[in-house]
């Protein structure tokens, strides 16, 4: 069976510092966790800055960042590694977790709750004071260097009783809570990311604020900062503001045409 794991190593040490606008004490808290070798959980809705924050922290702490997109078919072997046939030889190939441990990197398991329960268990020995990763198939145990750090993201909004992290997993992490940035911050972010003027950036944020107030009243989740940025990109390319809002901020978040229509009306009164 082929590997079905999607992962990448980002090396932000040499790169220009990624732009991240802190919203609270998250930078200091993360630094303290890194110094204290504590695992971290980033909680919050999609598209609100969790990945960008980690890219920024990886640069700040001068560590590589190994990112794994978790999904329900993810196996322990996908994370840890496996023997593969190469020609007529079998060779061991490290998975993202073993790679991150060896490199002393930050390992980011994005949407960890999507992974199977028996897969998640493999991170347990890395999250307590043992800080080790057993490569069972290889009969080897990797010891994590001080710079290795495990980070998971988790969106509490999506969880159901059937699909949630076990307390025995949750209680292995400190948790940093993320949400959509306050209006002033979000306006600055949209401006910085896209170069759009302050007035139109503020308008997009205002429309988003009204849409987010409708969460649980027809909308499953508020419109993300990422989508505001997409709307600004369209506007910069000459798309009319209302059209950009419909295309980037309304249609992606709901399939319900009645709700789409009322959101469009709300947006139009604000423009
Ligand atoms: P998540 O990982 O939470 O799904 P991302 O980190 O990919 O979301 O955020 C989506 C986009 O929003 C980023 O690419 C970035 O442009 C922007 N963004 C959100 N919050 C911030 C912030 N505090 N500082 C800078 N950019 C931000």
From TrEMBL:
InterPro entries: ATPase_dyneun-rel_AAA (IPR011704), CbbQ/NirQ/NorQ/GpvN (IPR050764), CbbQ_C (IPR013615), P-loop_NTPase (IPR027417)
GO molecular function: ATP binding; ATP hydrolysis activity
Domain ATPase dynein-related AAA: 39-173
Keywords: ATP-binding, Nucleotide-binding
CbbQ/NirQ/NorQ C-terminal domain segment(s): 186-269
Domain of life of the source: Bacteria
Entry similarity comment: Belongs to the CbbQ/NirQ/NorQ/GpvN family.
PANTHER family: DENITRIFICATION REGULATORY PROTEIN NIRQ, MOXR FAMILY PROTEIN
Name of protein: AAA family ATPase
Source organism per UniProt: Desulfotomaculum copahuensis
């Amino acid at each position: 069976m082929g590997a079905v794991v999607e992962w990448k190593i980002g090396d932000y040490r040499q790169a220009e510092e990624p732009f991240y606008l802190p919203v609270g004490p998250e930078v200091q808290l993360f630094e303290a966790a890194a110094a204290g070798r504590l695992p971290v959980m980033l909680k919050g809705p999609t598209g609100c800055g969790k990945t960008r924050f980690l890219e920024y922290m990886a640069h700040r702490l001068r560590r590589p960042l190994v990112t794994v997109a978790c999904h329900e078919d993810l196996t322990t072997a996908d994370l840890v590694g496996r023997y593969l046939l190469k020609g007529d030889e079998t060779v061991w190939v490290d998975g993202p977790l073993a790679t991150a441990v060896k490199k002393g990197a930050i390992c980011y398991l994005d949407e960890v709750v999507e992974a199977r329960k028996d897969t998640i268990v493999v991170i347990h020995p890395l999250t307590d004071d043992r800080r080790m990763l057993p490569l069972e198939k290889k009969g080897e145990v990797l010891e994590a260097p001080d710079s290795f750090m495990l980070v998971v993201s988790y969106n509490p909004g999506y969880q159901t009783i059937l699909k949630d992290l076990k307390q025995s997993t949750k209680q292995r992490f400190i948790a940093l809570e993320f949400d959509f940035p306050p209006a002033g911050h979000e306006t600055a972010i949209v401006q910085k990311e896209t170069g759009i003027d302050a007035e139109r950036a503020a308008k997009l944020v205002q429309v988003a604020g009204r849409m987010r107030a409708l969460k649980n009243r027809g909308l499953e989740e508020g419109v993300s900062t990422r989508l505001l940025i997409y709307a600004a990109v369209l506007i910069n390319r000459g798309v009319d503001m209302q059209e950009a809002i419909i295309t980037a901020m309304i249609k992606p978040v709901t399939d319900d045409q009645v709700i789409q229509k009322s959101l469009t009306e709300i947006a139009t009164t604000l423009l």
